[in-house]
Amino acid sequence: MMPERMQTKDLRVYFGKTEAVKGVDMEIRPGAVTAIIGPSGCGKTTFLRSLNRMHDNTRSARVTGHVYLGDRDIYNGGMNPVELRIRVGMVFQRPNPFPTMSIRENITFAPRRHGMRRRSDLQDLVEEVLRQAALWDEVKDRLDDPATGLSGGQQQRLCIARALAVRPKVLLMDEPASALDPTATQRIEELIFDLKAEYTIAIVTHNMQQAARVSDYTAFFYMGELIEFGETDVIFTNPKEAQTEAYITGRFG
Amino acid sequence: MSEGVSQTIPLRLRLRFLRDRILVGLCVVALAAAVVPLVWVLWDVVSVGAAHLSVEFLTSLPEPPTRPGGGWAHAFLGSVVVVGSAILMGIPVGVGTGIYMSEYGNNLLGRSTRFLCEVMAGLPSIVAGIVAYGLIVVTMGRFSALSGAIALAVLFVPIVAITTQEALALVPRHQREGAFALGLGDASTTLRVVLPAAMGNVLTGIMLATARVAGETAPLLFTAFNSRFWMEGLDQPTATVPVNIYNYAISPFDHWHDQAWAGAFVLVSVVLVLNVAARTLWARRARFMAGG
Ligand SMILES: Nc1ncnc2c1ncn2[C@@H]1O[C@H](COP(=O)(O)OP(=O)(O)O)[C@@H](O)[C@H]1O
Ligand SMILES: [Mg+2]
Prior knowledge:
The structure holds two protein chains of two kinds.
Chain A: E1 6-15, E2 18-28, E3 33-37, H1 44-50, E4 61-69, E5 72-73, H2 81-87, E6 88-91, H3 103-113, H4 119-132, H5 136-139, H6 152-164, E7 170-174, H7 182-195, E8 200-204, H8 208-214, E9 217-222, E10 225-231, H9 232-237, H10 242-248
Parallel strand pairs in A: 3-8, 3-9, 6-7, 7-8
Antiparallel strand pairs in A: 1-2, 1-4, 4-5, 9-10
Chain B: H1 2-8, H2 11-51, H3 55-59, H4 73-104, H5 108-121, H6 125-140, H7 145-169, H8 173-180, H9 186-214, H10 218-221, H11 241-249, H12 254-291
Helix pairs in contact in B: 2-12, 4-5, 4-7, 4-9, 5-7, 6-7, 7-9, 8-9, 9-12, 11-12
The complex binds adenosine-5'-diphosphate (ADP) and magnesium ion.
């Protein structure tokens, strides 16, 4: 299973008349972690959600330009959102396991809807993705308990496992650790590091240490524009743009 | 000591305290005006009704008015069948309408439906009876349990539709997005994520609506009509508890009045149990949602 590349061309997102993402050309490289940083309200979430067409369900939102998954245009290439989201998974800022389902059902729900029926296959899948999400040892004895009984950090790792269970090529993460304590945050970061061999990962974060620790590439957004993109080392040690430097040295935002 | 304190409080402030007291007093009077008659009626129904309740009353058919004894078994069965049919027909329509309004109804059709439901929920119940009379009774040429059930369903559906819509609207948006992000379509998301999360409140709405229509008399007077015997089918007239209460209460016979009290007691008990059950469920659900 090869991770896939994503690319945007002149991507613009409008909410009513206001333009929240203003013509972004950017590449999300396969099998690497790309961090998206920038001050609050600069369009990070809006950008990320345009990569799996989450704006389709927001009435006021309008997306123009191009987003490619591999070489297919996800907005104009005859791809439907369901097909797209199986390949491009998403983890949200606040853990959102399905509250009426058990830990096991949270994972098997989507794969079953997508046609995986054999009990043994599903059982194997549950163990595999829980191990990948570094949660197996903590929950293996209570797979049929409600998912809401888990701690926040565990719930977030369950959401990651749930996303992995549909076998995506790309994983989008919107501040996945911002609601968690430092220990849980560290576990999520280790997890991201482990996953990047198999997945293309884009992670939004407002925590610059986190971006520096987990990512290979960093994109700096400001007021809806992509100001600078490059290898994380370079962005953090030797940025080209004055705005980037000001932000990472903590002079604004 | 207390004198010393009261001397330090200016007159203006003391007048304000007095005004507060008067306001609270008036509220208590209003409350009493509302609650006392209610408790009185309930107490009457319970004390008089329970005194005339018997196994015979619950299990046998009526005797002619010249003889004592007999019971309302046929009316209890009739009510169960008429109300049961009404909710069996009404649940899919009401819940379906609620789902539409909540999940897909952000448009003219959805908003008009909501408006219509609100109007219909405030409909005088006798109008529902007239509708069912015109549509079913006149067409079939006779009174029937079915026409009574349809009249009750007309009252039941808008309540359930509105409570369902509100129950689904309480399910946070991030639950739906979690499902969409896994590549699930509208149908799976609605039926397997949103509806289960809202189920407690949906059931509460159904129970409250059931309690509401179970006691309706006017819509049944000229639809289900009445009978002194066991119901012979959905296409035949049938006795029901509320209509029996009405008929027995206005009769000239003392022992029939007693039976009307007993019937009222049974009806009030069922409605009360449904209401308490629904509200307990609601409270539990609210705590569950708040607790995350
Ligand atoms: N659903 C929405 N409707 C209207 N405006 C929105 C919506 N979502 C985001 N915005 C606006 O778009 C801009 C970017 O927001 P967002 O992408 O959430 O920023 P970030 O994630 O970088 O903090 C903000 O000005 C925000 O108010
Ligand atoms: Mg954000």
